[in-house]
Amino acid sequence: MYGLVNKAIEDLAISLAGEQTWLEIVRRAGLETVTFISLDSYADDETYRLVRAASEVLGLSSEEVLESFGEHWVRYTGREGYGHLMSAYGTDVAGFLHNLDAMHARVALIMPNLRPPSFEIVQDGTERFLVHYHSTRAGLGPMVTGLLRGVGSLFGQRLSVERLARTEDGAPHDVFAVTIMAPVPVDG
């Protein structure tokens, strides 16, 4: 995975529990580096080890860490210079999700080792759609749950996300039911 992913995990850990907690996560993950470079490639195993270590240090399940990370990823990448790219690929949740594969293809131009997932969106009513998530990486379904909620926040909408099929249970890919619940209230 690219260093941008590991840097986002660092950002999440520091925002939740501080710099010392991040250093403990890196130590428990058995990594020699504390600093990741966004556009450098790192072994997937390093990222998985960071997630496991974050789970131990923060006292959360790996699923909870991944879900929190998924939601955080949307905000983090927006702050790190990818917000304009995200806004170019949709003006609402459904439109953005329909264009995720195209956005990943664009990102692959600057990240040639990118192995992005693929998303198929199937409308299932006016406010409900199914998201079919295909990935060569195992165990990231909980992250997608968080990503989907993060995308909802990006467009000012609260989403209900239910994971209907799991690769861990033998399904060929993960499937999520996403329902647009309501606009997110604006703080006045």
Structural features:
188 residues; alpha+beta; H-NOX domain; 2 domains; four-stranded antiparallel sheet
Describe this structure in words.
The protein is of the alpha+beta class. The protein has two domains: 58 residues; 118 residues, Alpha-Beta Complex (H-NOX domain). It contains seven helices and four strands, in the order ααααααββαββ. The protein has a four-stranded antiparallel β-sheet with strand order 1-2-4-3. β3 and β4 form a beta hairpin. α4 packs across α7. The longest helix has 26 residues. The protein is globular, with a radius of gyration of 16 Å. The mean pLDDT is 92.
Our Rg estimate from Cα atoms comes to 16 Å
> If helices are DSSP runs of H or I spanning 4 or more residues, what is the number of helices?
7
**CATH level 3 topology of the largest domain:** H-NOX domain
Topology as a string of helices (H) and strands (E): HHHHHHEEHEE
How does the helix and strand content classify structurally? alpha+beta
Q: What is the terminal-to-terminal distance?
A: 39 Å
Short description:
By secondary structure, the chain is of the alpha+beta class.
Describe the protein's topology.
Blueprint: H1 3-17, H2 19-29, H3 44-58, H4 62-87, H5 93-98, H6 100-107, E1 118-123, E2 128-134, H7 141-154, E3 157-165, E4 174-183
Antiparallel strand pairs: 1-2, 2-4, 3-4
Helix pairs in contact: 1-2, 1-3, 1-4, 2-3, 3-4, 4-7
